[in-house]
Design brief:
- This protein has 169 residues and is an alpha/beta fold.
- Helix content is 29%, strand content 19%.
- Helix 2 crosses helix 4 and helix 6 crosses helix 7.
- It is globular.
- 36% of the residues are buried.
Length: 169
């Protein structure tokens, strides 16, 4: 049973470089286990209106070094809970990248891009292709290994391990 779509078409929310985990979810909200609280405050210091404009399935696009800073798992959780279906960036902080995969949030590195806010994007996760429908441009992402696609398809690492008999709670 797949919990993510491997093809996604949605609107882009575009932000800049070096967006750290404190900007994704301010530290004062990381003491809660309530995912809706995290979603309500995601990116609030960067874009106070983000939680009002994001729609389920939307795509977050950024520049270099997305997710730098602390290793808090709440950052990708907050994005996923807010409705973001995939994060695309020129590159990611490695721990954010892996935390995102582990909780079932797809992430793709596409290198230098000129995707604009509000662009309609079409993404093929398995092939690593990002099409900017609005600008009629395509980007080749660093292809995710099949194991990562499998982890994402199960909704995250724990579900993947449970399904494959390698882990029990």
């Amino acid at each position: 049973m797949s919990t993510i779509k491997t093809t996604i078409e949605a609107k882009a929310h575009v932000y800049g470089n070096h967006i750290d985990t404190d900007r994704i979810i301010p530290g004062k909200y990381t003491k809660t286990l309530d995912l809706s609280t995290l979603a309500n405050h995601v990116l609030e210091d960067l874009d106070p209106n983000f939680n009002k404009i994001v729609q389920s399935g939307d795509i977050l696009v950024a520049g270099i070094n997305f997710g730098c800073g602390s290793s808090r798992e709440q950052a990708p959780l907050a994005l996923k809970q807010s409705g973001i279906s995939v994060v695309i960036a020129e590159d990611f902080a490695r721990i954010f990248f892996r935390n995102a995969i582990n909780i079932g949030l797809p992430v793709l590195e596409i290198g230098k891009h000129d995707i604009q806010k509000g662009a309609k994007l079409s993404i093929d996760l398995k092939q690593g292709i990002v099409n900017d429908i609005t600008a009629n441009k395509s980007y080749k992402a660093t292809k995710l290994p099949d194991i990562m696609i499998d982890i994402l398809s199960e909704g995250g690492l724990v579900n993947y391990l449970n399904k494959n008999g390698n882990y029990t709670l």
